[in-house]
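Ticket opened by: R.M.
Priority: normal
Category: complex prediction / small molecule

The reporter submitted a protein together with MUC and asked that the result be attached to this ticket for the collaborator who will pick it up next week. Submitted input follows.
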Amino acid sequence: MMIRSVDIYILDIPTVRPHQLAMHTITAQSIVVARITNEAGQEGWSEVATIGGASYGEGTVEAIKANIDQYITPHIIGKELADFSKIMFEVSKVVRGNNFAKAVVEEALIDLVAKSKNVPAYELLGGKIHDSLPLAWTLASGDTGKDIEEAKEFLRQKRHKIFKLKIGKGDPFKNVDHVLKIIAAVGDKARVTVDVNQAWDETTANYCIEKLQAGGVSMVEQPLPTWNYEGMARLTERFMVPIMADEAANSVQDVFQITKHRYGNCIALKPCKHGGLLETKKVAAIAEGAGFGLYGGTMIESSLGTAACAAVYATISEFEFGTEIFGPLLFKDRITTDEIQFENFEIIIPDGPGFGMEIDLDKVKHYARDYSYSLSLK
Ligand code: MUC
Ligand code: MG
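Result attached by the on-call engineer:
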């Protein structure tokens, strides 16, 4: 069955509360949604997200859309859909980088192939190992009291017992205090990790990680800027607490170098960073071979993108740090009629055909950024 069309939409969906990272506070999350249609009119849908325009990483929703429309779509129209792996291999020969763009296209192809075979997408990825996975939540309201209340409430609801704190913004020493207060409040019932999002220099990292380690933090994510690989190696050597590479761990080749030189000792997976679900499996295999722990990361995708992450994470053997694919719980609304289920501190892997999510076209139209694109939605 041939590929007939590729439509790319940019959507902005509000969040339930402001979500504060080092470089940006999210109040509405920007996502890119892809729809790929085959000759029979069947549709595959997928989503990737970015954070804070170009402030988190180089990829922006505008660039993702422009590069797909201009440089990727022409290579896939008319191709045999079942050959999704070959299609993406051919795309990689003519488009460098652009991993987010490649990911959203590849995932829509996989959703469509799986739907046309009436099987869950994870069956095209080797089959699932997990029916559900542990789910962390990010406490990022920007206020210690609110964060503690939020953590206690989610423990009570059995929603999360792993909490990640975003501590890249503001005074590092006050932030360490903030973490220690949260550990004092919920540390006997929950694991507490921190994400610095590249905000520290090495001296600050040495000082703060010493205090965090002594205080019982169970993992430190991307403390240094991505370029400071050697600094990451020194921190990994010095501290017992695991040092996770996130923004630095993108392509298969990046991850190989990180594992080889121990620029950290665990990896946050994110299909968008790696260029799709197939590449995510390769990255996971490299990490596994090197004895690195894995974390099922998120760029804060809504239900559709989260279901795509869940499909591939379900096929990966072990997540020492659990997952953080909590996006649907942070969004005020969703663009699918199906909802992701969360139960007993875990996310349930959707089991329907494709990613198990039916699109709500009215919602896509409602949140689509450019009305001319929404008019073209059928
Ligand atoms: C990141 O850097 O990990 C993931 C969870 C969250 O709160 O922010 C994202 C990005
Ligand atoms: Mg991170």
